[in-house]
Amino acid sequence: MTLAAPAVERAWTPPFPLDLAAVLGPLRRGPADPCLRIGPDGSVWRASNTAAGVATIALRRAHGEIRASAWGPGAELALAGLPDLLGARDDDTGFLAHHELIAQARRRAPGLRLGRTGQVWDVLIPAVLEQKVTGKEAWRSWRELCRRFGTPAPGAAGVSPELLFAPPTPKALLAIPDWDWHRAGVDGARRRTLLAAASVATRLERAVDLGGEAGRDLLCKVPGIGVWTAAEIAQRAWGDPDAVSVGDYHLHDAVGWALTGRDATDEEMLALLAPYAPHRQRAVRYLELTGARKPRRGPRFAGRDYRAI
């Protein structure tokens, strides 16, 4: 693969401590994510769709600044959004740690920021794919759809070019035939949700401007997108600091064990997190950094392979 064009470049010095891995971590869907890869030199490569077309951006840390190179028709837009992607618009004013575990995590991770992609569509697809299946199965479907129906990343010579793709556009997703949905392991319910979202994808981008609960409510107008999926999208598209993934298979127990040493229902989890509003998701992120989780006492949920149905 040859470079699409000379790279557009930008250097940006964050005016705050920045943990690059922590801020970009929520965008990575599994270790073999076809849209976000780590290069041999430690650089981070991300392919995405923008209003101007596909873009590849490569990020490197050098002497306190972030140096970015971008390729493709969306390169300029990708670089313009770099500070937001890395958390420049995140504001933790008013956040207080009401639990010692969260206070400790905050002291250990001063570089945690809530980044924002500024766009709904690319983060909507994997959020829907992760509905009611194991992460492993959702990530396999994500890889299959991106590699077969996404756009090869321009300028991806710094990583394995055949492994870096931008997600399928709404038009490309609407054109996927029935058999290929089955081959990707996507059941009818998730497929119908993705098709419904693709048909109104342009309108859904308004959720970023609305932000907060209003933005999440707009996403929930799509049949098949509920509070869990809307929260997962909001956390990434506009760095929503209060969007809690209610209905998650593991989260309520993880929060319960971290803060009380026992299981918790979704309602109990929300009660525990209530003092952190409007920063409940920020509190969850700090808890995730501690590695606190419910002890495993039984077999993991095995999930279901929809390709076999």
UniProtKB/TrEMBL annotation:
Q: Which InterPro entries does this one have?
A: Alkylbase_DNA_Glycosylase/TA (IPR051912), DNA_glycosylase (IPR011257), HhH-GPD_domain (IPR003265)
An example GO CC term for this entry is: protein-DNA complex
Question: GO molecular function terms here?
Answer: alkylated DNA binding; DNA-3-methyladenine glycosylase activity; DNA-7-methylguanine glycosylase activity
What Enzyme Commission number does this protein have? 3.2.2.21
Spell out the SUPFAM superfamilies in the cross-references. Answer: DNA-glycosylase
Question: What catalytic activity does the UniProt entry give for this protein?
Answer: Hydrolysis of alkylated DNA, releasing 3-methyladenine, 3-methylguanine, 7-methylguanine and 7-methyladenine
Any GO BP: DNA alkylation repair
**Keywords assigned:** DNA damage, DNA repair
- SMART domains, A to Z: ENDO3c
Q: Which residues form the HhH-GPD domain?
A: 129-292
* Name of the featured protein: DNA-3-methyladenine glycosylase II
Annotated organism of origin: Crossiella cryophila
